[in-house]
Amino acid sequence: MGNTSLSLRFTILLSLSFAASSSSPFFFSKSPSLSPSIPKATPSDLLSLLGPPSQSSSVNPSVADELKSCFKFLVPFTPIDTRKTADSKSLSYRRFLLKSPRDEENELVWWPPEPVLELARLAVDSGGDPGSIHRALDPTVLPVPDVEGSKENKCGLTRTPYGRRFISQELNSYLEYLFKLIVERGPSVGLKVSLTRYDLFHGHLFIATETGRLGILFHAKEYPAYDKDVFPINMGYCQKGSNVTYDDAMNLRNILWLAPLPSNSTKGWMAPGVLLVLDARPGGIIYKDLIPEYVNYVRTIYEDDLGSVVVDVNYLNIGDPQPDYQIFIC
Ligand SMILES: *[C@@H]1O[C@H](CO)[C@@H](O)[C@H](O)[C@H]1NC(C)=O
Ligand SMILES: *[C@@H]1O[C@H](CO)[C@@H](O)[C@H](O)[C@H]1NC(C)=O
């Protein structure tokens, strides 16, 4: 986010006084509490459930059930048999045997191309050092151009006014692939999303705290349109012109990708990659335990809660008038 714009995280802080002085009913008070015997879910529980059986089995079963009820997989979740850890040769062989395009798309999430796997292993082998990922970036600095009229609105969309790309072109293409797959498959779980500067244009790349697993937390519906009844929150320059409506799809704005989890003792893999929507519907355990109360109206899960944030990944339409989407890593 630039200094001339505000993202949901900060705007809502600024809106607190508004909330406090407002009698309007849309600021939810605490959601109905779940059974008091269920412990509070943690970000680590969430990540463990998406990991190998050795990790998921450590989560309290009631918490696990509640969390699973909030998982909306964009790619089927298939924990692997860890006894059959495949090397990359047999992975590409398996890919070669597959036929349907849908299977191939799934496979690219379960077992991404080699450069993605290398990055995932680097994250773990470095002991979760963000510098290990930073070093995979090309040092060339790319100014972020106008994005769909953002300059005219004085909207700075990205954390910095310039970005970079990975040295490996395949890594950059993979990031594009993830954005497109979310748009393509979102509707199957009720998330209609578009690649615009008001909706889906960024994700936060992180290294999970306990496991070193590489992930991206995408945030869709970033700038809902101001509406005096349903979304009376002024978010500044970047919100101007928004056509994103505040509705039930807001519950689905947090989308999580996790890279396959490398084994820390062998060359094998402990879990395949995952891609899912985290349903933050009021009353659900994600809304109740994983979303800070001061942002519950906008359902934001914070990337910092999942691990060390390495970079923001932006996919921006810098074409005019023809769309031209480019990756900017900030
Ligand atoms: C908003 O505009 C974009 C680009 O014109 C379009 O793709 C998208 O479907 C629109 N979204 C809504 C909710 O109307
Ligand atoms: C390897 O990972 C396991 C499970 O995540 C952990 O318990 C163990 O301490 C790790 N070993 C090393 C050498 O880091």
Automatic annotation (TrEMBL):
Record's keyword terms, sorted? Signal
Domain of life of the native organism: Eukaryota
Specify the signal sequence span.
1-22
* PANTHER family, per the entry: BNAA09G03860D PROTEIN, OS07G0673000 PROTEIN
Protein's name in the database: Uncharacterized protein LOC110415225
Upper classification of the source organism reads:
Eukaryota, Viridiplantae, Streptophyta, Embryophyta, Tracheophyta
